[in-house]
Recover the amino acids of this structure.
Protein backbone atom coordinates (compact mmCIF):
# COMPACT_ATOMS: atom_id res chain seq x y z
CA UNK A 1 0.00 0.00 0.00
CA UNK A 2 1.15 3.52 -0.75
CA UNK A 3 1.61 6.38 1.61
CA UNK A 4 -1.62 7.89 0.37
CA UNK A 5 -3.58 4.86 1.52
CA UNK A 6 -3.46 6.22 5.05
CA UNK A 7 -4.41 9.77 4.20
CA UNK A 8 -6.88 9.75 1.35
CA UNK A 9 -10.40 8.34 1.68
CA UNK A 10 -13.57 8.77 -0.34
CA UNK A 11 -14.68 11.54 1.98
CA UNK A 12 -11.35 13.36 2.24
CA UNK A 13 -8.61 13.29 4.88
CA UNK A 14 -8.79 10.57 7.47
CA UNK A 15 -10.79 11.46 10.56
CA UNK A 16 -8.44 12.16 13.48
CA UNK A 17 -8.64 10.14 16.60
CA UNK A 18 -10.24 11.68 19.61
CA UNK A 19 -12.71 10.96 22.40
CA UNK A 20 -15.71 9.01 21.25
CA UNK A 21 -18.63 11.39 20.96
CA UNK A 22 -16.39 14.41 21.13
CA UNK A 23 -15.54 17.08 18.59
CA UNK A 24 -17.67 19.08 16.25
CA UNK A 25 -19.00 16.05 14.49
CA UNK A 26 -20.32 14.53 17.71
CA UNK A 27 -21.62 17.49 19.57
CA UNK A 28 -24.76 17.03 21.59
CA UNK A 29 -27.92 19.06 21.26
CA UNK A 30 -29.51 20.73 18.27
CA UNK A 31 -26.42 22.83 17.56
CA UNK A 32 -24.20 19.78 17.27
CA UNK A 33 -26.65 18.00 14.98
CA UNK A 34 -26.98 21.05 12.71
CA UNK A 35 -23.19 21.41 12.61
CA UNK A 36 -22.83 17.73 11.76
CA UNK A 37 -25.26 17.88 8.83
CA UNK A 38 -23.79 21.17 7.62
CA UNK A 39 -20.31 19.66 7.53
CA UNK A 40 -21.63 16.82 5.38
CA UNK A 41 -23.83 18.91 3.11
CA UNK A 42 -22.09 17.64 -0.02
CA UNK A 43 -22.88 14.02 0.88
CA UNK A 44 -26.45 14.33 2.13
CA UNK A 45 -27.66 17.25 0.04
CA UNK A 46 -28.58 15.06 -2.93
CA UNK A 47 -30.72 12.78 -0.76
CA UNK A 48 -32.57 15.74 0.72
CA UNK A 49 -33.11 17.08 -2.81
CA UNK A 50 -34.41 13.67 -3.97
CA UNK A 51 -36.91 13.51 -1.10
CA UNK A 52 -38.11 17.07 -1.79
CA UNK A 53 -38.53 16.37 -5.52
CA UNK A 54 -40.45 13.14 -4.85
CA UNK A 55 -42.80 14.85 -2.41
CA UNK A 56 -43.27 17.79 -4.78
CA UNK A 57 -44.26 15.63 -7.74
CA UNK A 58 -46.38 13.39 -5.53
CA UNK A 59 -48.42 16.47 -4.71
CA UNK A 60 -48.41 17.93 -8.23
CA UNK A 61 -49.49 14.63 -9.82
CA UNK A 62 -52.27 13.97 -7.34
CA UNK A 63 -50.54 10.96 -5.82
CA UNK A 64 -49.83 9.20 -9.13
CA UNK A 65 -46.04 9.29 -8.72
CA UNK A 66 -45.79 6.89 -5.79
CA UNK A 67 -48.07 4.15 -7.06
CA UNK A 68 -46.84 0.58 -7.29
CA UNK A 69 -46.86 0.45 -11.08
CA UNK A 70 -45.24 3.85 -11.55
CA UNK A 71 -42.42 3.16 -9.09
CA UNK A 72 -41.64 -0.06 -10.95
CA UNK A 73 -41.63 1.90 -14.20
CA UNK A 74 -39.20 4.47 -12.77
CA UNK A 75 -36.81 1.70 -11.74
CA UNK A 76 -37.00 -0.18 -15.04
CA UNK A 77 -36.93 2.91 -17.28
CA UNK A 78 -33.87 4.37 -15.60
CA UNK A 79 -31.97 1.16 -14.84
CA UNK A 80 -29.52 1.45 -17.75
CA UNK A 81 -28.71 5.07 -16.86
CA UNK A 82 -28.04 4.05 -13.26
CA UNK A 83 -25.75 1.24 -14.43
CA UNK A 84 -23.82 3.72 -16.58
CA UNK A 85 -23.69 6.24 -13.71
CA UNK A 86 -21.85 3.73 -11.51
CA UNK A 87 -18.98 3.47 -13.97
CA UNK A 88 -19.14 7.14 -14.97
CA UNK A 89 -18.73 8.45 -11.42
CA UNK A 90 -15.59 6.32 -11.03
CA UNK A 91 -14.22 7.78 -14.27
CA UNK A 92 -15.01 11.32 -13.11
CA UNK A 93 -13.48 10.77 -9.67
CA UNK A 94 -10.22 9.85 -11.42
CA UNK A 95 -10.36 13.11 -13.37
CA UNK A 96 -11.58 11.74 -16.72
CA UNK A 97 -14.81 11.71 -18.73
CA UNK A 98 -16.39 9.17 -21.08
CA UNK A 99 -18.54 10.46 -23.94
CA UNK A 100 -18.83 7.11 -25.71
CA UNK A 101 -20.95 5.04 -23.34
CA UNK A 102 -24.21 5.58 -25.23
CA UNK A 103 -22.66 4.50 -28.52
CA UNK A 104 -20.95 1.53 -26.85
CA UNK A 105 -24.28 0.45 -25.32
CA UNK A 106 -25.94 0.66 -28.75
CA UNK A 107 -23.09 -1.24 -30.42
CA UNK A 108 -23.13 -4.06 -27.88
CA UNK A 109 -26.93 -4.29 -28.10
CA UNK A 110 -26.66 -4.58 -31.87
CA UNK A 111 -23.99 -7.27 -31.68
CA UNK A 112 -26.03 -9.22 -29.13
CA UNK A 113 -28.92 -9.12 -31.59
CA UNK A 114 -26.74 -10.54 -34.33
CA UNK A 115 -25.39 -13.26 -32.05
CA UNK A 116 -28.69 -14.36 -30.53
CA UNK A 117 -31.37 -13.58 -33.11
CA UNK A 118 -29.54 -13.95 -36.42
CA UNK A 119 -26.89 -16.52 -35.53
CA UNK A 120 -29.06 -18.46 -33.11
CA UNK A 121 -26.61 -18.63 -30.18
CA UNK A 122 -28.06 -19.42 -26.73
CA UNK A 123 -29.22 -16.26 -24.97
CA UNK A 124 -26.81 -16.74 -22.05
CA UNK A 125 -23.84 -17.18 -24.36
CA UNK A 126 -24.85 -14.10 -26.33
CA UNK A 127 -24.97 -12.05 -23.13
CA UNK A 128 -21.59 -13.39 -21.98
CA UNK A 129 -19.94 -12.62 -25.33
CA UNK A 130 -21.51 -9.17 -25.33
CA UNK A 131 -19.98 -8.39 -21.93
CA UNK A 132 -16.62 -9.61 -23.20
CA UNK A 133 -17.02 -7.29 -26.19
CA UNK A 134 -17.66 -4.42 -23.78
CA UNK A 135 -14.42 -5.25 -21.97
CA UNK A 136 -12.52 -5.25 -25.29
CA UNK A 137 -13.99 -1.85 -26.15
CA UNK A 138 -12.87 -0.59 -22.74
CA UNK A 139 -9.38 -1.96 -23.35
CA UNK A 140 -9.23 -0.14 -26.68
CA UNK A 141 -10.14 3.21 -25.17
CA UNK A 142 -8.15 2.65 -21.99
CA UNK A 143 -5.03 1.94 -24.02
CA UNK A 144 -5.16 5.32 -25.75
CA UNK A 145 -5.88 7.17 -22.51
CA UNK A 146 -3.58 5.34 -20.10
CA UNK A 147 -0.59 4.36 -22.23
CA UNK A 148 -0.57 6.78 -25.15
CA UNK A 149 -1.58 9.77 -23.06
CA UNK A 150 -4.41 11.13 -25.20
CA UNK A 151 -6.99 12.98 -23.05
CA UNK A 152 -10.05 10.89 -22.30
CA UNK A 153 -12.32 13.60 -23.69
CA UNK A 154 -10.76 13.21 -27.14
CA UNK A 155 -10.53 9.41 -27.06
CA UNK A 156 -14.14 8.92 -25.99
CA UNK A 157 -15.40 11.63 -28.35
CA UNK A 158 -13.79 9.64 -31.16
CA UNK A 159 -15.27 6.49 -29.64
CA UNK A 160 -18.73 8.04 -29.62
CA UNK A 161 -18.51 8.51 -33.40
CA UNK A 162 -16.66 5.25 -34.06
CA UNK A 163 -19.03 2.94 -32.20
CA UNK A 164 -22.13 4.76 -33.45
CA UNK A 165 -20.86 4.09 -36.95
CA UNK A 166 -20.16 0.45 -36.11
CA UNK A 167 -23.69 0.14 -34.74
CA UNK A 168 -25.19 1.34 -38.00
CA UNK A 169 -22.86 -0.90 -39.99
CA UNK A 170 -23.79 -3.92 -37.85
CA UNK A 171 -27.52 -3.34 -38.18
CA UNK A 172 -27.54 -2.01 -41.73
CA UNK A 173 -29.89 0.77 -40.56
CA UNK A 174 -32.54 -1.81 -39.64
CA UNK A 175 -33.78 -3.21 -36.34
CA UNK A 176 -33.23 -6.70 -34.98
CA UNK A 177 -36.23 -8.21 -33.18
CA UNK A 178 -37.63 -10.20 -31.42
CA UNK A 179 -35.31 -11.47 -28.69
CA UNK A 180 -35.78 -14.61 -26.57
CA UNK A 181 -37.93 -14.28 -23.47
CA UNK A 182 -34.98 -14.97 -21.14
CA UNK A 183 -33.01 -12.12 -22.70
CA UNK A 184 -35.92 -9.70 -22.32
CA UNK A 185 -36.38 -10.57 -18.66
CA UNK A 186 -33.15 -8.82 -17.69
CA UNK A 187 -34.48 -5.49 -18.92
CA UNK A 188 -38.13 -5.68 -17.95
CA UNK A 189 -38.92 -8.92 -16.15
CA UNK A 190 -39.79 -9.70 -12.53
CA UNK A 191 -38.57 -12.35 -10.11
CA UNK A 192 -40.77 -15.45 -10.37
CA UNK A 193 -43.94 -13.57 -11.45
CA UNK A 194 -46.14 -16.70 -11.41
CA UNK A 195 -45.17 -17.92 -7.95
CA UNK A 196 -47.40 -15.52 -5.97
CA UNK A 197 -49.94 -14.10 -8.46
CA UNK A 198 -51.91 -11.07 -7.31
CA UNK A 199 -55.20 -12.87 -8.00
CA UNK A 200 -54.55 -15.47 -5.29
CA UNK A 201 -52.00 -13.93 -2.90
CA UNK A 202 -52.32 -10.81 -0.73
CA UNK A 203 -48.60 -10.06 -1.21
CA UNK A 204 -45.67 -10.95 -3.42
CA UNK A 205 -43.82 -12.81 -0.70
CA UNK A 206 -40.45 -12.97 -2.49
CA UNK A 207 -40.39 -9.18 -2.56
CA UNK A 208 -41.46 -8.97 1.06
CA UNK A 209 -38.74 -11.43 2.10
CA UNK A 210 -36.09 -9.52 0.14
CA UNK A 211 -37.28 -6.27 1.70
CA UNK A 212 -37.09 -7.65 5.24
CA UNK A 213 -33.64 -9.10 4.57
CA UNK A 214 -32.44 -5.79 3.14
CA UNK A 215 -33.81 -3.91 6.14
CA UNK A 216 -32.09 -6.22 8.62
CA UNK A 217 -28.77 -6.04 6.77
CA UNK A 218 -28.99 -2.25 6.52
CA UNK A 219 -29.60 -1.74 10.24
CA UNK A 220 -26.96 -4.30 11.19
CA UNK A 221 -24.33 -2.69 8.94
CA UNK A 222 -24.99 0.77 10.36
CA UNK A 223 -24.78 -0.46 13.94
CA UNK A 224 -21.61 -2.44 13.19
CA UNK A 225 -19.90 0.55 11.55
CA UNK A 226 -20.76 2.80 14.48
CA UNK A 227 -19.49 0.23 16.99
CA UNK A 228 -16.27 -0.22 14.98
CA UNK A 229 -15.57 3.53 14.99
CA UNK A 230 -16.24 3.64 18.72
CA UNK A 231 -13.85 0.75 19.33
CA UNK A 232 -11.14 2.59 17.35
CA UNK A 233 -11.83 5.79 19.32
CA UNK A 234 -12.78 7.70 16.18
CA UNK A 235 -15.29 10.50 16.05
CA UNK A 236 -18.85 9.30 15.58
CA UNK A 237 -21.89 11.14 14.32
CA UNK A 238 -24.34 12.42 16.97
CA UNK A 239 -26.77 9.81 18.25
CA UNK A 240 -29.75 11.79 16.95
CA UNK A 241 -28.19 11.99 13.47
CA UNK A 242 -27.46 8.27 13.54
CA UNK A 243 -31.05 7.51 14.47
CA UNK A 244 -32.36 9.80 11.72
CA UNK A 245 -30.20 7.94 9.18
CA UNK A 246 -31.17 4.46 10.36
CA UNK A 247 -34.87 5.17 10.83
CA UNK A 248 -35.10 7.15 7.60
CA UNK A 249 -33.27 4.52 5.57
CA UNK A 250 -35.27 1.73 7.15
CA UNK A 251 -38.54 3.53 6.44
CA UNK A 252 -37.52 3.99 2.80
CA UNK A 253 -36.72 0.27 2.42
CA UNK A 254 -40.00 -0.70 4.09
CA UNK A 255 -42.04 1.66 1.91
CA UNK A 256 -40.39 0.47 -1.28
CA UNK A 257 -41.07 -3.12 -0.22
CA UNK A 258 -44.71 -2.22 0.31
CA UNK A 259 -45.00 -0.58 -3.11
CA UNK A 260 -43.34 -3.44 -4.98
CA UNK A 261 -44.83 -6.36 -3.07
CA UNK A 262 -48.03 -5.43 -1.25
CA UNK A 263 -49.66 -2.27 -2.64
CA UNK A 264 -52.49 -2.54 -5.20
CA UNK A 265 -51.01 -2.98 -8.66
CA UNK A 266 -47.68 -4.30 -7.37
CA UNK A 267 -45.91 -6.73 -9.68
CA UNK A 268 -43.00 -7.89 -7.54
CA UNK A 269 -39.27 -7.19 -7.72
CA UNK A 270 -37.84 -6.19 -11.10
CA UNK A 271 -34.88 -8.40 -12.00
CA UNK A 272 -32.86 -5.34 -12.96
CA UNK A 273 -33.39 -3.95 -9.43
CA UNK A 274 -31.59 -7.00 -8.02
CA UNK A 275 -28.78 -6.46 -10.54
CA UNK A 276 -28.55 -2.79 -9.56
CA UNK A 277 -28.49 -3.62 -5.85
CA UNK A 278 -25.61 -6.04 -6.33
CA UNK A 279 -23.70 -3.49 -8.43
CA UNK A 280 -24.23 -0.71 -5.89
CA UNK A 281 -23.08 -2.85 -2.97
CA UNK A 282 -20.11 -4.25 -4.85
CA UNK A 283 -18.83 -0.99 -6.29
CA UNK A 284 -19.46 0.97 -3.09
CA UNK A 285 -17.33 -1.59 -1.26
CA UNK A 286 -14.59 -1.35 -3.87
CA UNK A 287 -14.52 2.45 -3.75
CA UNK A 288 -14.57 2.75 0.03
CA UNK A 289 -12.67 -0.29 1.29
CA UNK A 290 -10.21 -1.45 -1.34
CA UNK A 291 -6.74 -0.26 -2.31
CA UNK A 292 -7.93 0.16 -5.90
CA UNK A 293 -10.70 2.50 -4.75
CA UNK A 294 -8.31 4.56 -2.66
CA UNK A 295 -5.99 4.85 -5.64
CA UNK A 296 -8.82 6.20 -7.78
CA UNK A 297 -9.52 8.95 -5.25
CA UNK A 298 -5.82 9.68 -4.88
CA UNK A 299 -5.34 10.03 -8.65
CA UNK A 300 -8.34 12.33 -8.94
CA UNK A 301 -7.21 14.42 -6.01
CA UNK A 302 -3.62 14.90 -7.16
CA UNK A 303 -2.29 12.81 -10.03
CA UNK A 304 1.32 13.96 -9.57
CA UNK A 305 1.33 13.12 -5.88
CA UNK A 306 -0.25 9.75 -6.63
CA UNK A 307 2.55 8.93 -9.08
CA UNK A 308 5.22 9.99 -6.61
CA UNK A 309 3.66 7.80 -3.92
CA UNK A 310 4.08 4.73 -6.12
CA UNK A 311 0.57 4.33 -7.55
CA UNK A 312 0.53 2.84 -11.04
CA UNK A 313 -1.73 5.52 -12.49
CA UNK A 314 -1.67 4.02 -15.98
CA UNK A 315 -2.93 0.67 -14.80
CA UNK A 316 -5.67 2.29 -12.72
CA UNK A 317 -6.82 4.41 -15.68
CA UNK A 318 -6.75 1.39 -17.98
CA UNK A 319 -8.85 -0.72 -15.59
CA UNK A 320 -11.33 2.12 -15.13
CA UNK A 321 -12.09 2.20 -18.85
CA UNK A 322 -12.28 -1.59 -19.04
CA UNK A 323 -14.80 -1.48 -16.21
CA UNK A 324 -16.73 1.28 -17.96
CA UNK A 325 -16.85 -0.80 -21.13
CA UNK A 326 -18.34 -3.77 -19.28
CA UNK A 327 -20.97 -1.62 -17.56
CA UNK A 328 -21.83 0.08 -20.87
CA UNK A 329 -22.28 -3.37 -22.39
CA UNK A 330 -24.55 -4.41 -19.52
CA UNK A 331 -26.57 -1.20 -19.92
CA UNK A 332 -26.90 -1.92 -23.64
CA UNK A 333 -28.17 -5.45 -22.96
CA UNK A 334 -30.69 -4.18 -20.39
CA UNK A 335 -31.94 -1.45 -22.75
CA UNK A 336 -32.18 -3.82 -25.72
CA UNK A 337 -33.99 -6.43 -23.64
CA UNK A 338 -36.47 -3.87 -22.35
CA UNK A 339 -37.33 -2.65 -25.86
CA UNK A 340 -37.08 -6.16 -27.34
CA UNK A 341 -35.27 -4.52 -30.22
CA UNK A 342 -31.74 -3.48 -31.24
CA UNK A 343 -31.89 -0.30 -33.28
CA UNK A 344 -29.34 2.14 -34.75
CA UNK A 345 -30.68 4.99 -32.60
CA UNK A 346 -30.32 3.19 -29.28
CA UNK A 347 -28.23 4.80 -26.56
CA UNK A 348 -28.75 8.32 -27.84
CA UNK A 349 -27.70 10.86 -25.13
CA UNK A 350 -27.13 8.10 -22.55
CA UNK A 351 -23.68 9.54 -21.85
CA UNK A 352 -25.13 12.95 -20.99
CA UNK A 353 -27.64 11.42 -18.58
CA UNK A 354 -24.92 9.38 -16.87
CA UNK A 355 -22.62 12.41 -16.58
CA UNK A 356 -25.48 14.52 -15.25
CA UNK A 357 -26.34 11.85 -12.67
CA UNK A 358 -22.74 11.81 -11.45
CA UNK A 359 -22.45 15.57 -11.08
CA UNK A 360 -25.89 15.97 -9.54
CA UNK A 361 -24.93 13.18 -7.14
CA UNK A 362 -22.00 15.18 -5.80
CA UNK A 363 -19.02 14.30 -7.98
CA UNK A 364 -16.55 17.17 -8.27
CA UNK A 365 -15.76 18.61 -11.69
CA UNK A 366 -12.03 18.55 -10.88
CA UNK A 367 -12.13 14.91 -9.73
CA UNK A 368 -11.19 13.34 -6.43
CA UNK A 369 -14.70 13.53 -4.93
CA UNK A 370 -17.81 11.45 -5.47
CA UNK A 371 -19.65 8.33 -4.38
CA UNK A 372 -21.47 5.52 -6.13
CA UNK A 373 -24.54 5.98 -3.95
CA UNK A 374 -24.54 9.68 -4.76
CA UNK A 375 -24.49 8.96 -8.50
CA UNK A 376 -27.43 6.57 -8.07
CA UNK A 377 -29.33 9.29 -6.18
CA UNK A 378 -28.47 11.76 -8.93
CA UNK A 379 -29.79 9.35 -11.54
CA UNK A 380 -33.00 8.91 -9.56
CA UNK A 381 -33.41 12.69 -9.39
CA UNK A 382 -33.26 12.82 -13.18
CA UNK A 383 -35.59 9.82 -13.45
CA UNK A 384 -38.18 11.27 -11.08
CA UNK A 385 -38.02 14.60 -12.89
CA UNK A 386 -38.65 12.89 -16.24
CA UNK A 387 -41.44 10.72 -14.90
CA UNK A 388 -43.12 13.43 -12.86
CA UNK A 389 -43.10 15.95 -15.67
CA UNK A 390 -44.43 13.33 -18.08
CA UNK A 391 -47.30 12.56 -15.71
CA UNK A 392 -48.07 16.29 -15.61
CA UNK A 393 -48.10 16.45 -19.41
CA UNK A 394 -45.12 18.81 -19.67
CA UNK A 395 -43.63 18.90 -23.16
CA UNK A 396 -40.20 17.41 -23.83
CA UNK A 397 -38.63 20.76 -24.68
CA UNK A 398 -39.56 22.14 -21.26
CA UNK A 399 -38.32 18.94 -19.65
CA UNK A 400 -34.92 19.37 -21.30
CA UNK A 401 -34.77 22.98 -20.08
CA UNK A 402 -35.55 21.99 -16.50
CA UNK A 403 -33.07 19.10 -16.52
CA UNK A 404 -30.33 21.39 -17.81
CA UNK A 405 -31.13 23.93 -15.12
CA UNK A 406 -30.98 21.24 -12.43
CA UNK A 407 -27.55 20.12 -13.67
CA UNK A 408 -26.26 23.70 -13.65
CA UNK A 409 -27.56 24.29 -10.13
CA UNK A 410 -25.99 21.04 -8.92
CA UNK A 411 -22.54 22.04 -10.19
CA UNK A 412 -23.00 25.56 -8.81
CA UNK A 413 -23.84 24.03 -5.42
CA UNK A 414 -20.67 21.94 -5.60
CA UNK A 415 -18.57 25.05 -6.28
CA UNK A 416 -20.30 27.01 -3.51
CA UNK A 417 -19.87 24.18 -1.01
CA UNK A 418 -16.17 23.85 -1.87
CA UNK A 419 -15.62 27.59 -1.37
CA UNK A 420 -17.57 27.48 1.89
CA UNK A 421 -15.44 24.61 3.17
CA UNK A 422 -12.23 26.41 2.29
CA UNK A 423 -13.47 29.55 3.98
Amino acid sequence: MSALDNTVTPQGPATPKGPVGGGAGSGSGAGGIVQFFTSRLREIGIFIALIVIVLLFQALTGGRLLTAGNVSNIIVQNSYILILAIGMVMIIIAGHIDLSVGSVAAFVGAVSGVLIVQWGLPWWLGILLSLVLGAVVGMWQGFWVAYIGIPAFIVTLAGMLLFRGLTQMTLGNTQITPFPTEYRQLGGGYLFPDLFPASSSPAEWITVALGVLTLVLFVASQVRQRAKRAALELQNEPTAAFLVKVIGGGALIAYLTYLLGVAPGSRGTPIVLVVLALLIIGYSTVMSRSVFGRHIYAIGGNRTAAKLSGINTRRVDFMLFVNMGVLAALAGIVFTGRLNSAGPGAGNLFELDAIAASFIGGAAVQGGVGRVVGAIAGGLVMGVLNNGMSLMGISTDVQQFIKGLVLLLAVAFDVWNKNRTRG
The two ends are 33 Å apart (CA to CA). The mean pLDDT is 88.
